[in-house]
Design brief:
Length: 505
């Protein structure tokens, strides 16, 4: 019950926040309107291939079930959070055969800051973590089983990895790196993979994980090369996505892990002596290959963390899958601490249990309160508030709303029929569909005899866009909004394409 409360309470009270929720909700709404469930469209013409389709299918399922509201948009993510928390407990029990430890592991994961926050914002990371956790369960069972059961678990592992590929592409392979290193240390790599069933496993993975990519590659020219850059080469080795590149960018994961695992990271801070005596003990390291459970958790945590630190593109939520082994290890450490406490009376026993229970209840209340507080937090990211401002100024009839350098795709969810993103940057975000400039859009509007408004954020950007239009002989009506936003209505009546002069910012 507590998992359901943490996941679904106040889930629909907050408006859609840009950028991530705006991308995904806007794409899902467009796919639904176009009846296009395999090719993601963000707006009328932009093919949006940044992520595979599972996240959009989840949102569409919510919209079909609960209607057109914010709760429906976030329902699938809440469901994935609940299932992941339960899967964490299942993995813990698979490792240690301790029911109490399994329950504690689920509780710890669900009440850590980062997993809780990630479940309340629409991103692919919560969905990915569900499949990485299920993959870890299948892998450990396949390692410890024999005969037909081993084959069954291996095939299920291939299926989970394939579905994880549909959640966030090659990112599913990062936690799998820990499994690979685990097999190397256990000297079981050849026996694990060289079986007659490996071909069947590869086929399962190919159909579930790569089928959509192959279909899109055949359907849309240039998509395969974009996938290679956007999801592999560009993310791992280049700085074009501007997401904390370089080794210094890896420092982002220190506060993410320390503060993102609160309040449970306090247990580790109190056990600094235990960690030092363990990590710096030669005997402990020598015995590690024989301790399969401990070795598996270490590989599951440190190998993906190393890959994340070395990759060029780094964000806090990328570390979400490694909160799973962290939660299980924390539960094990906490259970060990509790078992060492001696009780002289039954009242002492109750007192030792009552305090942590009250602290956990207070923390859950604090998490729920913070979730509700975000509903009333004034921010320019809230597209619901932006729509309330913009709606009275948009004339009736066919109208295109163009955003300049600051996206507002979530407006598609709130009723704007046509939203197009424009840029005046020399190096815009490398999207699959090339982003047009303001002047290119005006030429198209003049050709098609259509009306449009430009949504610009930031006083400097508003002044620059106005200068572009003025130097091209176009006057604008300006409506100022909150958060330094402005709506620009260009007066295109009587203008022609030949009268538009090219002007660079």
């Amino acid at each position: 019950m507590s998992l359901l409360v943490l996941s679904f309470s106040f889930q629909g009270s907050r408006g859609i926040w840009q950028p991530d929720e705006g991308y995904y909700a806007g794409t899902a709404v467009t796919m639904l309107a176009k009846d296009s469930f395999f090719i993601p469209y963000l707006g009328e013409h932009e093919i949006f291939l940044d992520k595979p389709p599972m996240i959009y299918w989840g949102i569409i399922m919510g919209l079909k079930t609960f209607g057109h509201n914010e709760f429906a948009v976030r329902f699938f993510h809440g469901l994935c959070f609940v299932l992941t928390s339960l899967a964490v407990g299942s993995l813990s029990y698979s490792l240690f055969k301790d029911r109490k430890g399994a329950i504690i592991s689920s509780l710890i994961y669900a009440t850590m800051v980062v997993p809780f926050l990630a479940a309340n914002f629409v991103t692919p990371d919560t969905i990915l973590t569900l499949w990485t956790t299920l993959s870890a369960i299948c892998f450990f069972h396949s390692f410890t089983s024999e005969g037909k059961r081993r084959i069954l678990w291996q095939m299920l592992l291939c299926g989970c990895v394939g579905l994880g590929f549909l959640a966030k592409g090659p990112a599913i392979l990062i936690p799998c790196g820990g499994m690979f290193v685990f097999l190397i240390v256990k000297k079981d790599l050849r026996r694990y993979f060289l079986t007659p069933w490996s071909i069947v496993g590869i086929l399962i993975f190919t159909v579930l994980g790569l089928g959509w990519y192959i279909w899109i590659g055949l359907k849309i020219p240039g998509s395969l090369s974009y996938f290679m850059d956007n999801q592999i080469w560009g993310r791992l080795f280049t700085e074009k996505y501007h997401r904390n590149p370089g080794l210094s960018g890896a420092l982002i994961y220190a506060p993410v892990l320390l503060f993102g695992s609160l309040p449970w990271s306090i247990i580790w801070l109190k056990k600094k002596g235990f960690l030092r005596s363990t990590l710096f003990s030669k005997n402990w390291w020598r015995s590690l290959p024989g301790e399969s459970r401990v070795l598996f958790l270490l590989c599951y945590f440190f190998v993906p963390l190393l890959i994340l630190c070395l990759a060029s593109s780094k964000l806090g939520f990328y570390a979400l899958p490694i909160f799973v082994p962290l939660a299980i290890a924390t539960a094990t450490l906490w259970a060990r601490k509790i078992s060492t406490i001696k009780h002289t009376s039954f009242s002492d026993f109750l007192a030792s249990r009552a305090r942590p229970l009250w602290l956990i209840a207070g923390w859950i209340f604090l998490l729920l309160f913070s979730k509700l507080a975000l509903t009333y937090y004034p921010t320019h990211y809230n597209i619901k508030d932006l729509w309330a401002e913009v709606n009275p100024h948009i004339p009736a009839g066919e109208y295109e709303l163009c955003t300049v350098d600051e996206r507002a795709d979530g407006l598609l969810f709130y009723g704007v029929k046509r939203v197009e993103h424009l840029t005046n940057k020399s190096h815009p975000y490398p999207a699959f569909t090339e982003t047009e400039t303001v002047l290119e859009e005006i030429r198209e509007l003049l050709d098609d005899k259509e009306n449009a408004a430009f949504l610009v954020i930031g006083d400097n950007h508003v002044a620059k866009v106005l200068a572009v239009l003025k130097n091209s002989g176009i006057e604008c009506r300006v409506v100022h909004l909150r958060h330094q936003r402005a709506l620009l209505f260009p007066c295109l009546a009587g203008k022609s394409v030949s009268g538009i002069r090219r002007y660079q910012l």
